[in-house]
Amino acid sequence: MVRGVLFPRARSVRGGVASIAVRRETNRMRALAGLLLVVAVLCGVYYFTLKKMPSSDEGTAPTQAISLTGVRGDLLQIAQAERNYMATNGNCATLDELISTKSVTMSRPERDGYVYTVACSSQDFSVTANHAPAPAGSPIRYPNLAISP
After folding, report:
1. Could you tell me the pTM of the whole model?
2. Given phi > 0 = left and psi -120 to 50 = alpha, else beta, which region is 72?
3. Distance between CA 54 and CA 56 in Å, rounded?
4. Are 54 and 64 in contact (CB under 8 A)?
5. Which pLDDT tens digit goes with each residue over 61-80?
6. Which of 30, 32, 40, 50 is at 20 to 30 A from 72, Cα to Cα?
């Protein structure tokens, strides 16, 4: 006991070079284990975030969100072009007329299986996007979208 008080560094010197090497390896292993733990937690958060990613419409796959966003953008563009056409000409235009006059930037009246239609009445219109039904037993569904002013 007295020896420990008189020579406080004697205990650490006793191990020598071997104990320093062991401590270095232990610290490296702790750092590696900590890094693996952080990576595992981040992978878990990433995995569960993607699994619970909200879909844009009930019953649709998350991968359909991009397509549905494009279809909604097309519907808005068609509706705006139709409003402009009606304000300028006083009547409703068909989708082919809007495409041929370059009132809309699209070149085809469809996107990713959705087909666009414009229905005109006296001073009103509606733009719809319809998709063929999904195969029987498929968990994917294709919602029909519409805009009317």
Report:
1. 0.60
2. alpha
3. 6
4. no
5. 677 778 888 999 999 999 99
6. 50
